[in-house]
Amino acid sequence: MAASPSSSAAESxxxxxxxxxxxxxxWYALLHADGGGSERxxxxxxxxxxxxxxxxxxxxxxxxxxxxxxxxxxSRGERNAAAAAVHVSATRSASRRHVLGSLAxxxxxxxxxxxxxxxxxxxxxxxAWRSDYRTGVGERRxxxxxxxxxxxxxxxxxxxxxxxxxxxxLTLTMGEILIDTARDSQGRPFFVDTPNxxxxxxxxxxxxxxxxxHTLLAVFDGRVEIRNRAGHVEIVPAGQQRQxxxxxxxxxxxxxxxxEAWSRGVILADDVALGALIAELDRYQHGHIGxxxxxxxxxxxxxxxxxxxxxxxxxxxxxxxxxxxxxxxxWVSIEAR
Length: 337
Prior knowledge:
single chain, alpha+beta, Jelly Rolls, 37% helix, disordered N terminus
């Protein structure tokens, strides 16, 4: 297949939308089913040239495909089946109007969170790969440090440990960790460092999540002091969470139990928008899950298995007015039923 001009679009700051991503996935399935043929390739090239959002969407589909390549072992028969599924889906959907939100509503679809998570800068992933402790996508891990402190790593996470005679320091290089600090026989303070600042644990159990330019701290026992790069300081007590950047610390909120539930293999939803819930699920699996803005705002309550994304999707499809459609083995779309 001819190379696409997708990389320049992806690098220009252009954002895409759910519809463009779905069209790109459909084109990918069709072109890879039988080589495409000259007419189909010409139609694809015309679609690609129509809008920068199309080129950005194509770049994302190609990127997901490359990341999934070592895992999927996709046969020609599977690609043909995917193409057939696309044809049926296109026929059914031609008669109904798609309800699409604006680009400003991307956060509600889970798309913005997916892009931020999946396209972590390469240098950050290299640092994470060299970290003392790390997990892959869909993996969780529980480690005990030399002083007795226990640390749980969530999916796709990494941290370094540096203990010396004056302090105990963890550096979160990527992802999310839950920390249950132990009392130190030498009386050394316990710190967690992130790109946005550091936190000092004051005899406590807490989680830290690094996501893009934001750090989220949730405290479940004891207290934690935040000091961001700008020098702002806040004490966060048990039962509260605070999000902060290098420049500011947000107002306190109630600590979300979901920020701790993942350590038990549970994705917890307490009146959460479907789009936000799927963005959370997407962290635990390879490939892509997209949510049509028409259903992204549906509120969800429940407990779901983090270790079985297919089962979670089946539970949601059973209980909500949605349809789960698989354009490709590694590309899932959620639409109105």
